[in-house]
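[recover] target loaded
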């Protein structure tokens, strides 16, 4: 059973017809950047819940989650329709190990995401630890359409703060949208296109890679990286690939 507490909706930002971000106020316990919480609503006498990563850094006094409305979903259409002043339930305690504490030191940190899975990276990048530990950070965000590239203002603010460290490379798979690359992340790693465009070599000696999002992307990218000599990062046996399946 989740330790449910009420959260007030401060803002519901609709990025397009289906992508939205909820900004909430609630007295939750401290969490680590990269972790997730659970949101729930009582529907027909049952608590319907889903996990959502924090987009906000732990230092923020407001909670933010990034989600997509699933047309036939039980919960997401109701969350999408919430208005300021309304209430949703949130778990008081965060979960998850997709944090920088679990990632070994390296020269370069590659953050690879699809869709709403960019959320935990925005939380991580708005804390100081990443910038102190890694010489270069590559943020890769793959979506279907350019309208799905949310949080551009926040990403641009990070680029202004860390112009020598942060490299941002979007992918858009279903329409031409330069400077976004076409296609998918696994293929762009396999054929070297991603390395050529960002200007960094992807090597086990210099790189740590975090994968978050569509399970198919995570699985395929992990397989391509393993062919290049990378290994999964485990506490008992540190490697270079840290993963989080987003559903």
């Amino acid at each position: 059973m989740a330790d449910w507490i009420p959260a007030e909706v401060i803002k519901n930002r609709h990025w397009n017809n289906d992508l939205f971000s909820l900004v909430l106020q609630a007295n939750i316990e401290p969490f680590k950047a990269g972790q997730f919480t659970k949101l729930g609503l009582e529907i027909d006498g049952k608590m319907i819940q889903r996990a959502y990563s924090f987009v906000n850094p732990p230092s923020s006094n407001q909670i933010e989650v990034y989600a997509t409305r699933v047309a036939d979903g039980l919960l997401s259409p109701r969350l999408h329709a919430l208005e300021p002043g309304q209430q949703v339930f949130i778990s008081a305690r965060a979960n998850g190990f997709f944090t920088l504490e679990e990632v070994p030191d390296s020269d370069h940190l590659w953050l690879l995401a699809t869709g709403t899975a960019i959320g935990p990276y925005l939380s991580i990048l708005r804390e100081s630890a990443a910038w102190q530990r890694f010489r270069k950070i590559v943020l890769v965000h793959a979506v279907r359409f350019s309208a799905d590239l949310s949080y551009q203002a926040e990403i641009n603010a990070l680029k202004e703060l860390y112009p020598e460290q942060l490299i941002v490379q979007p992918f858009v798979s279903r329409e031409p949208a330069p400077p976004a690359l076409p296609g998918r992340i696994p293929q762009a790693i396999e054929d070297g296109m991603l390395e050529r465009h960002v200007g960094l070599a992807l090597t086990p000696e210099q790189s740590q890679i975090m994968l978050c999002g569509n399970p198919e992307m995570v699985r395929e990218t992990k397989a391509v990286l393993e062919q290049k000599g990378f290994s999964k990062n485990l506490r008992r046996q540190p490697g270079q690939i840290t993963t989080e399946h987003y559903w």
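[recover] notes: The CA atoms of residues 141 and 207 lie 18 Å apart.
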